């Protein structure tokens, strides 16, 4: 603990993204512990990613939006009070009165109150079916209203700006038909011009949105479906709900009540050091009017937070100005705006490429001599954004038209000066990134760790890749020292050449004799491209220990046996057989998290005998030992549960029998839940299926383990046939392109274009691979045969199941167990025993 001498208290009002950033900045720099921090957070949840709020729809998991370290666990100098609002400020006494009736004294007061949604004074705006789109609680209310309205009902969004289109997408994901009402003549008027707006409107209309531009909302009243919305042109929309997303206003009421200076259009007036008219009070983020100007983006908000942290520690930082550039993907449509996008600079010229056939619009705004880039707009394709935005205010390296033409010049990272800002969210320059690369950051995760670039919105990641490529740092894709190719490249070689042996592959495409990296990897590739048994011929020698004996090796040299139970189903007769086997061979029995039974403690020579009993009882290998499908977990679904909407058990059994034995870069886990209550925990799996009233929602890329990730929605309300078709494509695409030992979660996160690109490949067949991927999966399904059944029918394979090759009848004498406690546990000879009470912790 730091000494308490001269410690001061900073009270932070508001715990949003900017408030959290301030606390992080102050605590990371205050090495002497000069400041204690008290945070008053109005919401029930600690700071979360409000920019990514739309990703909450479908997942409905607030924890996935939580900002890292938002609860300050273990930091004794930070006190977080959630659900406690600041009601008033006594500037003379330097105290804050809270909604809980507490009085909190401060030496420095930091107002991070953010903004509130503007609701136009439309008659009926306070109808119970009207909502705003700002917080997690708002989205929970919208969800409940959407479910009450039912699938296919209309939902009206008042406001066609950035947040309005996000709200419309949320309604679309909830099964509603969204109507967007925008008073301006085009969508996103602050970001795009008339040409870009026209392309944007066409693209979102093709996705199912009904767009009403150039009209206002005249009235809202109770209607047949919930609300009746009358527009200024006299048209009427019968809808289930209305979402207001008509802009935001700075939350400055607490400052007004305390007689702090506010701007004529709102906002708490500050100087460039973020100090208000009271020298002990500071304002940051959207509530701050820096020299009279409010900024509504998170990047300038972060800058204000850093400045106040610096000032409280004796620094003299000043607000450097704001980069109001934006790049986002709305309903799968790229939109980017940067610099003087609307050409308001005197003498500015515009160069436009408007390709209506492709649905793209690109505009560069340049100086009157066409040499300096002033700004630009990109709609439909924003790949050039990361290279163009840092050049604003700088000489262009090529003709403007060439920079936005598909056949024109490609703008490389070498065209940017060292002081060009690459990451606007965290204010990271090209020079800082190149310095990190020179110091040993040789991949994207390394650059993120060293510089924080790419850790917020991720829009600068393509430029980070370019800087790596042009830095001279070798970015090897080699699988190991014996193969220069990556796993994905070796997969393609095997597929195209038809090579079916490791020796043949390494002779022609590699070098040396191979290692424990490339041998199992090639073995997996061979198994993924054929139905040959993994212990046939040369392949047997490539396998790791688990695959070599088709069982999981345990810590004392014994093995575990896991029979498959598709979807968790098992017959009474099979349970009896399992019990008899466990009793006869003295095995420890454990029900796994994947809804099946694991039998521990089998010696290697016992494995064939045990499996003969299980196979004769109609059971198959559960592949618990392989990099392949493990389980498909399920709840009981509509067959038994009163909440079930679909037959989750039937679907789980179908999927497990379809994908059993499917070899892949890493293990695969699936789950099927019969309703949104999610008893099968499907969103923690590589592939998760959740029943809806109309079919199935398909989630992909989930993961437990060391770095848990929730699966994300790939497609919704699918029928059985489409669901299986999409899963076929997804799994086979993963198997073909992932790296060695790469789970679907990390593979998916590393894909160029992210989820949107994956959705295009899987659902829209953008690469033309659908038929090929489905055919490959059909080949696997048709060729499947239980591995243990095949071993039992082959004397040559059975001969390997011995403890000692030169004494096949002899059991391993080093294997022993401690059965004195409540559980049977292995004894490790020559090593200290692990107390039963601490095992597994």
Provide a descriptive summary of the structure in words:
- The protein is built from 24 helices and 39 strands.
- The strands form eleven sheets. The protein has a five-stranded parallel β-sheet with strand order 3-2-1-7-19, covered by helices on one side. Strands 9-16-10-11-12 form a five-stranded parallel β-sheet, with helices on one face. Strands 22-23-26-25-24 form a five-stranded antiparallel β-sheet.
- A hairpin with a 4-residue loop joins strand 14 (227-231) and strand 15.
- Helix 1 packs parallel to helix 6, helix 12 (487-497) crosses helix 14 (518-528) and helix 19 packs across helix 22 (770-783).
- Mean pLDDT is 88; it is low at 830-841.
| Radius of gyration based on Cα positions | 31 Å
User: How many helices does DSSP assign?
Assistant: 24
Shape descriptor reads: globular
> Percent of residues in helical segments?
25-40%
Topology:
Elements: E1 8-13, H1 17-29, E2 35-41, E3 78-82, E4 86-90, E5 95-98, E6 103-105, E7 108-111, E8 115-117, E9 130-132, H2 136-149, E10 154-158, H3 162-173, E11 177-182, H4 194-206, E12 210-213, E13 217-222, E14 227-231, E15 236-239, E16 241-244, E17 248-250, H5 253-257, E18 268-270, E19 281-283, E20 288-290, E21 293-294, H6 298-312, E22 326-330, E23 333-339, E24 349-355, E25 360-366, E26 373-379, H7 385-388, H8 400-404, E27 421-423, E28 428-429, H9 430-438, H10 444-451, H11 461-470, H12 487-497, H13 502-509, H14 518-528, H15 545-549, E29 552-553, E30 559-561, H16 572-585, E31 588-591, E32 597-602, H17 607-616, E33 629-634, H18 648-659, E34 668-673, E35 687-692, E36 695-700, E37 712-718, H19 720-737, H20 744-750, H21 754-763, H22 770-783, H23 787-792, H24 795-798, E38 816-818, E39 825-827
Parallel strand pairs: 1-2, 1-7, 2-3, 7-19, 9-16, 10-11, 10-16, 11-12, 18-20, 33-34, 34-35
Antiparallel strand pairs: 4-5, 5-6, 8-17, 13-14, 14-15, 20-21, 22-23, 23-26, 24-25, 25-26, 27-28, 29-30, 30-32, 31-32, 35-36, 36-37, 38-39
Helix pairs in contact: 1-6, 9-10, 12-14, 19-22
